[in-house]
Amino acid sequence: MYQKKYIVSNNDVDKQFKLKIPAIFRYFQDVALLATEAVGADSISLSKKNIDWVITRMAVEIKRLPKCDEEITVCTHPGKDMAMLYPRYFYIMDAKGEIIVSSSSIWALIDNTTRKVIVDRDVISKLPPENYDCQLALPEKIALPENKRFIEKRTIHYSDLDFNSHMNNVRYVELLMDAHDSIFYDKHSVKSITLNYMKELKEKEAVEVYTDASIPETISVCNNEGLSFLGKVVFTNN
Fold it and tell me: Are 203 and 168 in contact (CB under 8 A)?
C-alpha cells in the first residue's frame, strides 16, 4: 500500500476549517499518480504511449473530515482487475492511524485517440492486486432519477481541463457540491458520495446541472448529447 503524509492547507478548508470535499479527490488523484509512477503505469507516462486512465465510478465514505493544519496520511492500493476494469482503493488516516475517509473506485484504460477501452496487460502486470479487510465495497451504478429540478447552466472553460483536454474528474465533484450554498453546509455535512462518470466533457461545451431534491440526493450533469455524470450524496445534520 502506497502512503504519503500531508498537512491540511488553509487553501483546502471551508469556513469551519474542515477539509473541503473536492480536496479529498485531489489527494486521491495525487497519490494514485505517485503510486503508479515508479513502475511507469501513471497517467503521464502512459500518455506518451497514447493511453489514458479514466475513472468510471467512485464511492467515498466519510467518518470525519480533517481540519486545517492536521497531519493526515493518504493511502492507495490496486485491487483485482475485472476484465477491462481496474479497482483502486483509497484511505485517509489521521495521526493516530485511524481511517477517517475510505474510498473505492473503478478505472479503465482507453486509447487517447479513439477514446475506446483497451486491454494492456503490460500495464496491469505492473500493478499486482492487494487486498485489505478495511477496503470499501466497489461503487454501484446510480439509478437515473425520475424527477429532476434545474439548478444552473455552465460552460466548460480552460481552467476545467486536464492535460488530456477533458474536464478534470474533481471539477465534476465541485459541480456537485455547488448544488448547495454555504448556508446549507453550515447545517449539513457529507456522509457519503457515489460518482458515476459517463461521458467526458470538453472545452466550450455547455452543461446543465440538475437535482432530484430527494434523500439521498442525486445530482446530474448533462450536455447536448445527454447524461455526462451522476453523483449521489448522503447528507447528515450538523
Answer: no
3-state secondary structure of 38: coil
Q: Which residues contact 223 (CB under 8 A, 6 or more apart)?
A: 199, 201, 205, 206, 207, 208
Question: pLDDT higher for 117 or 121?
Answer: 117
Crossing angle (nearest 10°) for helices 169-177 and 21-37? 170
Q: How many helices (H) and strands (E) does the chain have?
A: 5, 11
Give the global pTM: 0.94
Closest to 12 measured CA to CA, from 61, 56, 74: 74
Domains, the chain, with CATH or none: 2-125 (3.10.129.10), 149-237 (3.10.129.10)
Question: Tens of pLDDT along 197-237?
Answer: 999 999 999 999 999 989 999 999 999 889 999 999 999 99
